[in-house]
Design a protein that fits this description.
The protein contains twelve helices and ten strands. By secondary structure, it is of the alpha/beta class. The protein has two domains: 231 residues, Phosphoenolpyruvate-binding domains (TIM Barrel), CATH 3.20.20.60; 56 residues. Strands 1-2-3-4-5-6-7-8 form an eight-stranded parallel beta barrel, surrounded by five helices. A two-stranded antiparallel ribbon has the order 9-10. Helix 3 runs parallel beside helix 4 and helix 11 packs across helix 12. The protein is globular. The two termini are 13 Å apart. The mean pLDDT is 95. Belongs to the HpcH/HpaI aldolase family. Its EC number is 4.1.3.34. It comes from Bradyrhizobium elkanii. It holds the Pfam family HpcH_HpaI.
Length: 298
């Protein structure tokens, strides 16, 4: 029986051109945890029938490679219903919806996915949802959107559409989206869903590493991407390294030793360790062990 990687342990979420067969067939070799068959912006309308026709066989091949299978359909008042009618036959693990600005957009998607699950004999409720937040209106309602359906396992923040909606000037340093990314993870964390960071849309490896390190510092454990070559970099940054784990174990050991002596906190390397620091260190160790276990079994 297929063992699906939990959403909380999915680091890299890769968008792929929906009708580009060469790219789609090679995608599983990228190392990305989630492959997203992109039927919206990456697939011009004339190519959407071809992209839909690829879905069933493509998703079966991806599942065979052990990756999480996702598809991003078009908005439901555009081509989205036609997309769903075709791609749901392939039984995707996750359906992503772009340009979600109101909770009712998710409710309508949930209803449509439920209908197709029944029509195609798919276990009802087994398909997860991933709303994409791309406008200011959606950003300020992320918490409500994230709780609009029990199917939601995470929300994904766009970069280009959000910057355009804000009238912001894009730069590879990402300063124009700094507040949005900080607010987004707070909203997702409060709602109890995975926050998938926006993609780095430049090609340089140094830039995506820098951008992912910054996201990690904010608390992100997942990042979307548009270049398959970036998947190993994102996975590397978002997987606790040996030095991080070593330091986390030192924190746990020092704090627990202090507690056995009746102290509420302890100094280590000039930093005062308190309960939140101790708890974070334990979470980091647990995440590192879980990622290594699932990667070992993949």
């Amino acid at each position: 029986m297929r063992k699906l990687r939990p959403a909380a342990l999915c680091r890299s979420w890769l968008f792929l051109e929906g009708a580009n067969e060469d790219v789609l067939q090679q995608a599983a070799a990228s190392g990305a945890d989630v492959l997203i068959h992109e039927l919206e912006d990456f697939t011009p309308p004339p190519l959407r029938p071809k992209a839909r026709a690829l879905a069933a066989e493509l998703y079966a091949a991806w599942r065979g490679r052990g990756v999480v299978v996702a598809v991003r359909v078009n908005p439901l008042d555009q081509d989205g219903m036609d997309d769903l009618a075709a791609v749901m036959r392939g039984r995707p693990d996750i359906v992503a919806l772009p340009k979600v600005a109101e909770p009712h957009h998710v409710v309508r998607l949930d209803e449509a996915v439920t209908r197709f699950e029944r029509d195609y004999g798919i276990a009802e409720g087994s398909t997860s949802l991933l709303p994409n937040i791309e406008f200011a209106r959606g950003l300020v309602q992320t918490g409500a959107i994230a709780m609009a359906s029990r199917r939601i396992i995470g929300c994904l923040m766009a970069s280009e559409d959000l910057a355009a909606d804000l009238g912001a000037e894009r730069g590879s340093d990402g300063l124009e989206l700094a507040y949005a990314r900080q607010r987004f993870i707070v909203e997702c964390r409060a709602a109890g869903v995975v926050a998938v960071d926006c993609p780095y849309t430049w090609s340089d490896a140094e830039g995506v590493e820098r951008d992912t390190i910054w996201a990690r510092r904010l608390g992100y454990t997942a990042k979307s991407l548009v270049d398959p070559a970036h998947a190993p970099i994102v996975n590397g940054v978002l997987t606790p390294g040996e030095e991080q784990l070593r330091q986390a174990r030192r924190i746990v050991a020092a704090f627990e030793a202090a507690r056995t002596q009746g102290f509420g906190r302890v100094e280590l390397d000039g930093s005062l360790l308190e309960v939140p620091t101790y708890s974070n260190a334990k979470r980091l160790i647990a995440r590192g062990e879980a990622l290594r276990a699932i990667d070992r079994d993949a």
